[in-house]
Design a protein that fits this description.
The complex is a heterodimer. By secondary structure, chain A is of the alpha/beta class. In chain A, 42% of the residues lie in helices and 16% in strands. In chain A, helix 7 links the parallel strand 6 and strand 7. The radius of gyration of chain A is 18 Å and the shape is globular. Chain B has two domains: 15-105; 111-215, 3 Solenoid (Pectate Lyase C-like). Chain B is elongated and about 60 Å long. The chains are: A alpha/beta, B alpha/beta. At the A-B interface, helix 7 of A face loops of B.
């Protein structure tokens, strides 16, 4: 049975789009057929992160207006045959996309794909309601900052009221050194406050930005710790039990030397 | 411990009007100057807002509280009411039974609520009567109750007890680190408070926080006061 997952956060800039792209890519890597839906109308960038921006002809608002069929707007990914993107519009009137239309599209996509991953806009207004409308499950992305956690709390409250089940949490952009020094909210604290299951943690990693700019999701990168984190998240979505990654895997020559000597 | 606090609204109207079974109850302020009071009633009953009282004949009860009135003042106030044709004065006095029944009913309607779960940021949750919350109140989470608030968990958000003006209400929590405390119309900020098993109460318009072990004694006193009042 197909599942539609919405990725949301409330606050902007915590990594919704990056997480959406990477979860979808990681699911595709595991052999699942996935469709990504960009519901962030007006500010589309999922296609940029996926490196597919030059292939867009039609978008979701065109489909909503009836200017094209749903299949025509879908863009096949250049790396995986079973990964597609339904891009957002940049200039068109977003009011054409209603909650009912969204529900209809997602239901239709679920017939062909095993997973539909929806990228939600920031905020909790109309765009959020539309993005959430068709989803069966929700993933809330937050960062270890008070503002992001506060917004995540608000969003979880709204999702619970919409009977979207218990949302699952991704804590993004963790900096192990800052957590160790006690300068960053620690993960247990966040999970306890938000009172929902932790789906995964993603360390802060420069490679994420580098890869996003190149249009290659970090999940494709076998070396990056953040890529591993997203692949782990995908496996957890499929029901595998994967332990949380240890944050102290700073191994370089110098780190290993220090370990040998018995330093921290 | 005293918490930095302030009274929110110091301008209570000079006359409060309540609908009761005996008719309209006018509660007059006990301290205001008689001239001011008369002027206030004049505009209330005969001014633009007076149209509210238009219609068939209605019973009214006027209660002046604990004020010591001279015969001339008494006549002056009553005269303002009498000039409205459709008012029939049913009772006039300090502690009318209508007033007493109004306040007694409130004190007795101590409903008790138990709420299981988290109170999240954003949506205020309101209870009628006392409430026990089994779970946390998150930062920016907002709990209101007409009576007491007891949090069996972490109080990190905003708690407002006695929202209808009950100044004897308390706020207590297992982990007491609220963003803001409100009892009746007094607001307190508790910037660096992070304590376990504490409760907040009002004393002379000042928010006080004390350890839970003192609560039983304090509560006994409060109950005595309530019974007497």
């Amino acid at each position: 049975m197909a599942t539609a997952i919405v990725v949301t956060s409330g606050k902007g800039g915590v990594g919704k789009t990056t997480s959406t792209a990477n979860i979808a890519t990681a699911l595709a890597l595991l052999g699942k057929s996935v469709c990504i839906v960009d519901a962030d109308i007006g500010l589309r960038n999922l296609d940029v992160v996926m490196g597919l921006e030059n292939r867009i002809i039609y978008d979701i608002v065109d489909v909503a207006n009836g200017d094209c069929r749903l299949e025509q707007a879908l863009i096949r990914d250049k790396r995986f045959e079973h990964l597609s993107l339904l891009p957002a519009a940049q200039t068109k009137d977003k009011r054409a996309l209603t909650e009912d239309k969204m529900r209809e599209f997602v239901a239709k996509l679920k017939e062909t794909y095993e997973f539909v991953v929806i990228d939600c806009p920031a905020g909790i207004e109309e765009g959020f309601k539309v993005a959430v409308a068709g989803a069966d499950a929700a993933i809330v992305v937050t960062t270890p900052e008070n503002t992001a956690v506060r917004d995540a709390d608000r969003v979880i409250g709204l999702l619970e009221r919409d009977k979207l089940g218990q949302p699952r949490l991704i804590v993004n952009r963790i900096r192990p050194d800052m957590v160790k020094r006690g300068e960053m909210l620690d993960i247990d604290e966040i999970v306890q406050m938000l009172g929902c299951d932790l789906l995964g943690i993603v360390p802060d990693d420069e490679a994420v930005i580098r890869n996003s700019n190149r249009g290659e999701p970090i999940a494709m990168n076998p070396e990056a710790p953040s890529g591993l984190a997203y692949r782990n998240i995908a496996r957890r979505i499929l029901g595998d039990s994967v332990p949380l990654m240890s944050l102290e895997s700073k191994s370089g020559l110098w780190g290993r030397m220090r370990k040998l000597i018995g330093g921290r | 411990m005293i918490v930095n606090s302030e009274v929110l609204s110091d301008s209570k109207p000079l006359v409060t009007v309540k609908g009761t079974r005996d008719g309209l109850l006018f509660l007059l302020d006990e301290q205001a100057d008689v001239d001011e009071l008369c002027a206030y009633i004049e505009t209330l009953v005969h001014g633009p807002s007076g149209t509210l009282f238009d219609g068939p004949v209605m019973d009214i009860v006027v209660d002046y509280g604990k004020r010591a009135l001279s015969p001339s003042d008494s006549r002056r106030i009553l005269d303002v009411f009498h000039r409205r044709e459709n008012f029939v004065l049913k009772a006039w006095g300090g502690g009318t039974t209508t007033r007493q029944s109004l306040f007694q009913r409130k004190a007795k309607a101590g409903v008790e609520n138990i709420y299981h779960g988290l109170i999240r940021s954003g949506e205020p949750v309101t209870f009628d009567g006392d409430v026990v919350i089994i779970g946390d109140v998150n930062p920016s989470g907002h709990v209101q109750a007409t009576g007491d608030i007891f949090v069996f968990g972490r109080l990190l958000g905003i708690a407002h007890a006695g929202i209808e003006g009950d100044r004897s209400a308390v706020i207590a929590a297992t982990e007491f680190a609220p963003m803001q405390l409100r009892i009746a119309d007094v607001v307190g900020r508790a910037p660096n408070l992070r304590a376990t098993m504490e409760y907040a109460y009002l004393e002379d318009n000042q928010l006080m926080v004390s350890e839970m072990k003192n609560f039983v004694v304090w509560n006994k006193k409060r109950r005595l006061n309530r019974d007497r009042g």
